[in-house]
Design a protein that fits this description.
By secondary structure, this protein is an alpha+beta fold. It folds into 3 domains: 4-85, Rossmann fold, CATH 3.40.50.20; 94-111 and 174-267, D-amino Acid Aminotransferase, Chain A, domain 1, CATH 3.30.470; 114-171, Dna Ligase, domain 1, CATH 3.30.1490. The chain contains 10 helices and 12 strands. The chain has helices at 16-32, 46-53, 71-78, 88-95, 97-106, 119-124, 202-206, 221-237, 276-283, 288-298; strands at residues 4-10, 36-42, 57-60, 114-118, 132-136, 146-148, 166-171, 176-183, 186-195, 211-214, 243-251, 259-266. A 5-stranded antiparallel beta sheet has the order 10-9-8-11-12. A hairpin with a 2-residue loop joins strand 8 and strand 9. Helix 1 crosses helix 10. The longest helix has 17 residues, at 16-32. The chain starts with a strand and ends in a 5-residue tail after the last helix.
Length: 303
C-alpha cells in the first residue's frame, strides 16, 4: 500500500495564500508519485483534522507564525506523526530573528548590526543611522519589512501592525541579494535576486516577472564558496532538518571582494512556481517531483 501523506497548508498566518500555493503544488507532485494524499487546510482544530486523516507522514506546507515557529511541529510530535522540515527547537529559534543572530555570530557568521526596540521608541527617534531596515521579530517572507531611507519623514512611517510590539532595526546593507538552499546538510548553488524595482520584498518574491534570478550567482569564487559554507554552518548550528534556505546580502559597492552578511535562515522555504528552492534543486539535477519525494522520505518524528 502506498504511503499516506497529509499535506498541511493554509493556516491563519499572514502567509496563508502562499502556503496554499505551496501545498497544492506539493499535493499535485505527490499524486504524480503515486502517494495517497490528503490535503488539510489547517485550522485551530488541527489535531482533530489529523486524527480524521490518519496519515503516515505530514508534509508541512505552512508558512509564517504557528506553521514554522515550532508550534505545529509540537503537534506532530505529540501525535507521533513523522513530518517534513525542521523540528520544534530549530524552527522556534530560526523564527526568532534576534536569537538566531546570536547563535550565528557565535560561530563566526557575519550578520548586520541590529537593535530590538519598541514601536514607541522607533516612533520617537532613529535607533540606528539611516538607512536601516525595520523587521518584525517573528515573521517570514519579508512580511512587514521596510527600509527607512535618509530622506523619509520623521517620525518613521512604520507599518501600523507593529504597534505594541518589539521590532528589529537592522543596519541596511547595500549591494546584492543572495540565497542558498541547504538540503540534508549540503549547500546547493547560490542564486542572486535582482528586483526590477525596490527591494526583494513580499511582492517581488511572489509576483511573476519583476525579479531576475541569476543562477549560479555571478560572484567571486571565494565569496561563492564562503556563502555555501555559512549556509551549511547555519543549518547545522540550529540543528535543522530537511531543506532550509539561507538569505544573504553581499556588499561590493565600494570594494571587490565585498562583505558578505547573513540575514536569516528559513526552515519552511516556499514550493511555489516562483520559489527559490525548487529552482536551486533543478540546477543540481533534481526536478520538482524528485525534490518533493526526497522531502517526504526524509520526514521523521524525534523520539
Amino acid at each position: 500500500m502506498s504511503k499516506h501523506v497529509a499535506v498541511v497548508m493554509g493556516g491563519w498566518s499572514a502567509e496563508r495564500d502562499v502556503s496554499l500555493v505551496t501545498g497544492h503544488a506539493v499535493a499535485d507532485a505527490l499524486g504524480r508519485l503515486n502517494y495517497r494524499v490528503t490535503e488539510i487546510d489547517a485550522d485551530r482544530n488541527l489535531t482533530q483534522q489529523l486524527r480524521g486523516a490518519e496519515p503516515d507522514v505530514a508534509f508541512n506546507a505552512l508558512h509564517g507564525r504557528w506553521g514554522e515557529d515550532g508550534c505545529v511541529q509540537g503537534i506532530f510530535e505529540v501525535m507521533n506523526i513523522p513530518y517534513t522540515h525542521s523540528g520544534v527547537m530549530a524552527s522556534a529559534v530560526a523564527m526568532d530573528k534576534p536569537m538566531a543572530k546570536k547563535l550565528f555570530e557565535r560561530v563566526g557568521i557575519p550578520c548586520a548590526d541590529h537593535k530590538i526596540v519598541t514601536h514607541a521608541e522607533l516612533m520617537q527617534e532613529d535607533p540606528l543611522p539611516r538607512p536601516y531596515v525595520v523587521k518584525p521579530i517573528n515573521e517570514g517572507s519579508s512580511v512587514g519589512v521596510q527600509i527607512i531611507q535618509a530622506g523619509d519623514n520623521q517620525p518613521v512611517p512604520v507599518d501600523p501592525s507593529f504597534a505594541g510590539h518589539d521590532v528589529m532595526v537592522e543596519q541596511y546593507v547595500p549591494g546584492r541579494e543572495l540565497a542558498c538552499a541547504v538540503m540534508g546538510g549540503k549547500a546547493l548553488g547560490i542564486i542572486e535576486l535582482r528586483p526590477q524595482r525596490g527591494f526583494y520584498d513580499y511582492e517581488a518574491k511572489y509576483s511573476d516577472g519583476i525579479t531576475d534570478h541569476l543562477l549560479p550567482a555571478p560572484l567571486p569564487d571565494d565569496v561563492y564558496v564562503k556563502a555555501q559554507e555559512y549556509a551549511a554552518l547555519a543549518h547545522t548550528e540550529l540543528q535543522c532538518r530537511g531543506i532550509t534556505r539561507v538569505d544573504f546580502r553581499y556588499d561590493d559597492t565600494n570594494h571587490d571582494p565585498g562583505d558578505l552578511f547573513m540575514l536569516e535562515i528559513n526552515t519552511q522555504p516556499g514550493m511555489t512556481p516562483l520559489s527559490l528552492v525548487p529552482e536551486m534543486a533543478a540546477y543540481e539535477g533534481m526536478d520538482f517531483d524528485q525534490l518533493v519525494n526526497w522531502m517526504v522520505e526524509d520526514a521523521s518524528c524525534p523520539r
